[in-house]
Design brief:
The complex is a heterodimer. Chain A is mostly beta strands. Chain A contains no helices and eleven strands. Chain A is 0% helix and 52% strand. By secondary structure, chain B is mostly beta strands. Chain B is built from no helices and twelve strands. The chains are: A mainly beta, B mainly beta. Chains A and B meet through β5, β9 and β10 of A and β5 and β6 of B.
C-alpha cells in the first residue's frame, strides 16, 4: 500500500515550547491530509483536515491557534503544537487520502508520541 | 449522522481458531467501509475495504470481511488466528452520498484482539 511518513516518532519537550510534526505522502500526492489525536486505549479523534494551498478545517473544540497546520505542498503537511502543556501529551497520527485508489483509502503515519514535561 | 459501533472492547481467541471482530454502521447514504489494525505505538495499517461488488472482501494477512446491508454490519473474520494478529482493530465508515460530515472517515471505538497460544 501507499506510504505515509511521519516524523518524529517521539518527542519530549518542556512546557511552553513548540513542537512541529511532519507528515509526508511518499508515493502519491495528497490534496487532503488529516491529523488525529489518540488517547490511551481510545479511538482516534479527528483534530483537523489539512488542505493543500488553503486553510485547514478544524473540528469543533480544537484550538486552531494551539494546533497550527500547514499544508504547503501536495506531499507535506505539518502540525505545530504551540506553547505545549502537559495536557497536550498524546499520540498524534497523520493520515493522507490516496486519490489513485477506489474509495480513496486513507493511509496513516506511524504516529508521534508527544510528552510535555 | 454516520456512526460506527464495535460492540466488543476485547475479543479473546485461541491460536488456530477462527476469529470474528464485529462492526455495525449507520449512514444516510451508501457506505465505504474499512478495517484498520494498530500495533502498539504505531499508526494504523489498512487491512481491507468494501466499496461495491462482492459482499465478501478479502484483505491483508488472511483477513476478510463480509458486508451485510440488511444488518448494516461489516464483521472482520479470519479462519485461523495467529498470535501475531493480537492488536487493536478499528472499523471505519465514510458516507459517500452525503456531505454532512464533509466526507470524513468515522472510526469505531476499536476492539482489542488477543490471540493466545
Amino acid at each position: 500500500g501507499a506510504v505515509v511518513s511521519q516524523h518524529p516518532s517521539r518527542v519530549i519537550c518542556k512546557s511552553g515550547t513548540s513542537v512541529k510534526i511532519e507528515c509526508r505522502s511518499l508515493d502519491f500526492q495528497a490534496t487532503t491530509m488529516f491529523w488525529y489525536r489518540q488517547f490511551p486505549k481510545k479511538s482516534l479523534m479527528l483534530m483537523a483536515t489539512s488542505n493543500e494551498g488553503s486553510k485547514a478545517t478544524y473540528e469543533q473544540g480544537v484550538e486552531k491557534d494551539k494546533f497550527l497546520i500547514n499544508h504547503a505542498s501536495l506531499t507535506l503537511s505539518t502540525l505545530t503544537v504551540t506553547s505545549a502543556h502537559p495536557e497536550d501529551s498524546s499520540f498524534y497520527i497523520c493520515s493522507a487520502r490516496d486519490p489513485r485508489q477506489g474509495g480513496n483509502i486513507q493511509y496513516f503515519g506511524a504516529g508521534t508520541r508527544l510528552s510535555v514535561l | 449522522a454516520q456512526s460506527v459501533a464495535q460492540p466488543e472492547d476485547q475479543v479473546n481467541v485461541a491460536e488456530g481458531n477462527p476469529l470474528t471482530v464485529k462492526c455495525t454502521y449507520s449512514v444516510s447514504g451508501n457506505p465505504y467501509l474499512f478495517w484498520y489494525v494498530q500495533y502498539p505505538n504505531r499508526g494504523l495499517q489498512f487491512l481491507l475495504k468494501y466499496i461495491t461488488g462482492d459482499n465478501l472482501v478479502k484483505g491483508s494477512y488472511g483477513f476478510e470481511a463480509e458486508f451485510n446491508k440488511s444488518q448494516t454490519s461489516f464483521h472482520l473474520k479470519k479462519p485461523s488466528a495467529l498470535v501475531s494478529d493480537s492488536a487493536l482493530y478499528f472499523c471505519a465508515v465514510r458516507d459517500i452520498l452525503t456531505m454532512e460530515y464533509g466526507n470524513k472517515l468515522v472510526f469505531g471505538a476499536g476492539t482489542i484482539l488477543r490471540v493466545k497460544s
